[in-house]
Design goal:
Elements lengths: L1 E5 L4 H12 L3 E6 L18 E5 L5 H10 L2 E4 L6 H6 L1 H22 L2 E7 L27 H21 L3 E6 L2 E2 L10 H11 L3 E4 L5 E3 L1 E2 H12 L8 E4 L4 E3 H11 L6 E4 L1 H4 L15 H7 L7 H15 L5
Parallel strand pairs: 1-2, 1-4, 2-3, 4-5, 5-6, 6-11, 7-10, 8-13
Antiparallel strand pairs: 9-12
Helix pairs in contact: 1-7, 2-4, 4-5, 6-8, 6-11
The structure holds uridine-5'-diphosphate (UDP).
Uridine-5'-diphosphate (UDP) binds next to helix 6 and strand 8.
């Protein structure tokens, strides 16, 4: 099977590429390294089944050529990370909307299977826990930059489903819930690599707000396995799936857990949101997926608990050096 991964040098994309290559598939990736990193795929370069194109998905000519060669397209190229979204809203909106438009338009001409990566961010401020795929999306006002990400991803979802309904292009939408693991950078604001790097460096662990907000961390290996299974499942087409861990933890507890596991002397420091992001910043209080739908279809079940996940991320940073964030 030939597979194209847009954003294949990114955190999730590089793990997906690695797994597909291990399974003997031929993998093409396109990445402009805007948030991806060449180090993420260095170890794959020797594999003759691996083909890397350093370019943007706005290059329609190349994208058309690569989609033509592929049996399945995983569209992971996107502007992600709350910090990046708040600081570069134009880039976020344009990459996420125009990029997806290109991929869908070209894939539809050739009738290729497309998996579109969306985000749990689309549930916005909804308090209907756990979030089910059919639930209402509750987004904030347009003058608060953060919501542009949720909105751009929601539009991607509408587009993907419209291409299936109207043009018969087989699309599948996946909503990722706080995916974590080795190679994720804290540079764009993601909490776990930041906490682990801070703890290992003996710097303050920066909890934003009260730390009472909670998340369900999702192991990247589980995400990769799930998207691969969905991509080849006929009943997944035209559907939306949550992919997430179900163990909920407050950010405050996560900070202390990281401190424990890394055996760190770091202080846990509370920083007001307006200082961490921008004036008027709104956070999501809880984000818990219902995984009934994906469990029923492919038997999805998280394989690592939070302690296991944090330990693996700690091992990664100890081996590769911590980041300064
Ligand atoms: N967070 C934090 N300290 C940090 C980075 C993030 O307390 O150094 C918080 C952030 O405000 C949010 C949670 O951790 O409540 C998860 O943030 P992340 O950016 O990883 O993902 P999000 O769920 O917000 O998309």
């Amino acid at each position: 099977m030939k597979v194209l991964i847009t954003g294949g040098a990114g955190f999730i994309g590089s793990h997906l590429a690695e797994k597909l290559l291990n399974d003997g598939e031929e993998v093409y990736i396109i990445d402009d390294l805007s948030t991806g990193r060449v180090e993420n795929i260095e170890h794959l370069q020797q594999n003759p089944q691996f083909h890397y194109f350093f370019d943007t998905i706005m290059n329609r000519f190349l994208l058309a050529e690569l989609i033509d060669r592929a049996d399945i397209v995983f569209h992971l190229a996107a502007a992600v990370g709350v910090r990046l979204i708040v600081e570069s809203p134009v880039r976020t909106i344009e990459t996420n909307v125009k990029g997806t438009e290109h991929v869908l338009e070209l894939a539809s001409k050739k009738n290729k299977i497309v998996v579109i990566a969306s985000s749990s961010e689309v549930y916005g401020k909804s308090r209907q826990i756990p979030f089910r795929e059919v639930d209402d999306l509750v987004l904030g006002p347009t003058n608060i930059g953060r919501w542009s990400y949720a909105c751009s991803k929601a539009l991607d979802e509408f587009l993907a489903l419209a291409y299936w309904k109207e043009k018969g292009c087989p699309t599948i939408v996946v909503r990722f819930f706080n995916t974590v693991g080795p190679r994720q950078t804290g540079q764009y604001g993601m909490v776990l690599p930041r906490f682990v790097s801070q703890a290992l460096a003996g710097e303050p662990i920066t909890v934003y707000g009260t730390g009472e907000q909670s998340r369900c961390l999702t192991w990247v290996g589980d995400v990769v396995q799930a998207v691969m299974q969905l991509a080849t499942h006929p009943q997944a087409v035209g559907e939306i799936f949550n992919i997430g861990g179900t163990e909920e933890i407050t950010i405050r507890d996560l900070a202390f857990l990281v401190k424990d596991i890394t055996d760190s002397q770091s202080e846990v420091k509370f920083i007001p949101y307006e200082q961490a992001y921008e004036e008027g910043f709104e956070d999501m209080q809880r984000r818990v997926p219902s995984i009934d739908k994906i469990q029923k279809l492919i038997g999805f079940k998280p394989t690592l608990d939070i302690v296991g996940i944090v330990s693996k991320v700690k091992d990664y940073f100890q081996k590769n050096g911590v980041e300064s964030c």
